[in-house]
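Kindly review these tokens for lecture notes.

. . .
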Amino acid sequence: MSSQPFSPTSFQTFGDMLKYLRRREQLTQLDLSIAVGYSEAQIGRLEKNQRRPDLTAIKALFIPALHLENEPEMIARLIELAKSARQEDAPAPGLSPYKGLLFFDESDSELFFGRENLITHLTERVTGLSADTSTRFMAIVGASGSGKSSLVRAGLVVQLKHKGWKCYIFTPTADPLKELEMYMKQKQAEVKSETVLILVDQFEEMFTLCRDEKSRVEFIQKLLELAQETSNKTTVVIA
């Protein structure tokens, strides 16, 4: 091993110290990447202080690869700099607008873009149904993962609430009648609204979770009854 011209305190960033130690061992970034199981690009980002060092990897992989076992002061300084390292040019922490496989809910409405025309059309359609005492029922269908839940929750419901509607959202679960009864109790306890939306999302749970055929039939009948009552303006939408 070559003589050491620098003291551990000579280094002020993890990247500078890593670069020095790598060159001291006459290793290329590729050589070091192979030794520690990182990509060459990851080694480059570490040396530019653009990647946060992983302390476990530093102790278990980098120290042996850089032959630091007999240099406790260098090890201590490398770990100290790794702990204080910060990524440069990285975005500030914040709320990710991407939901992955999760749907956009009412609280995500400001992040839900790209379906404005469809939301407007759907809202107008439901509003029109509320004026017809005989056909206040609508089904929204589409392929799995096409965004139906996001459309009705972050789109339709938000727009209707802005118009003064009272909206109730639930999924059938394995006991759809119980879920509907909970809604009915809640509705009776609250101040009556002229226009009400009952949204049954994930309606396919009627068949994937509920195993009682009698419960299925009774649940659907009750939904239709609510949509056909002439004493109120309840609109039923299933997705």
Summary: The beta strands are 137-139, 166-170, 195-200, 233-238. Residues 87 and 93 are 12 Å apart (CA to CA). The mean pLDDT is 87. Residues 213-228 form the longest helix (16 residues).
